[in-house]
Amino acid sequence: MSYANTCQRNALGYANILYVALNLLFVAHQSSIFIERTDLDVFQMLNDIGAAFERYGDQSKQFSPIHKMSHVWGTAAVAYYFKSDRYAYLVCASMMRASLELLGICFCSSGIESLYVLAERCVPEFFRMMSIDPGVKLHSPECLNYFRNVLENTEDCIRYSTDQVHEFIAKLFNFDMSEHRD
Amino acid sequence: MIAAGKYPDERTLRDYSALQRWMYLHSNKRSVMDICQSIAQMYLARSEDYDSDSLCHLYLLCAEAYQSIGQINQGLSYFHQARSMVRATSNDSQREEQDRKKKKLEEIGMKLQFQSKFQSCLIERDGSQSDRNVLMKSSSSTESIEQISLF
What we know:
Chain A is mainly α.
């Protein structure tokens, strides 16, 4: 993370490096990250990365907006998994899976090497879901279809944020998250 | 709304930045593989009909695109095609254009190399090696951290 701080803040590169650092931190601490690293607000970091990917995304033309944002949704899924927040995990994992299916992206692909290792080692359920050939349309979780529709009707991308996650949870699971803190 | 054209037009083919922008837009809606296969069908399979600049741009574009979705085998083949074309052209009057292509080629080569090292480390990893080592072994310094996060 100190390496990240040597980069220009308003550049995509900074957000990318922060993204990788976050995945590596999860590999190191797993679910204990919330106890061992109280100096970090992991969900705020994810919000910041999501915002940066959206704002500065077109500094790199190699990955389309949905493709890039899917990376953030993926790490967020792992974060919620470690937090034992099942609904939020399902929302984020489904958003990433729907993106991979829509655009034919393999889980073992460029930019998410750190997430791949994290999933393979620490979250087998998530790894199983993402590593199935993207050409295959999964049947579960049930909310996947909802996210397929959402993505097909998006011009740009659906930015990851904790507010967005709560909105999806409310819509899908009729669950009002407004009293819950992250 | 994205322009209806399923294929980049001939003017776009000759301008690599324009081609990249075209791909950036279209790959948000259609699968990259689908797009590259259409491009291959339309242009690469009829290479006699198109100028070498356009073809080289398409090979570079597809190499990078396949690499971005994790299909490095196909990416490698297109990378080799692009490399042969760049080597075959030694037209001094288009020095700048040549240099741009070489730079792009180098960049794609680096990314392909990194990904293949990463994959080979994952395969040979045993239980005793930590996962951070897997990522670090496939790179060698802090520049590589940039590579991991480089698009």
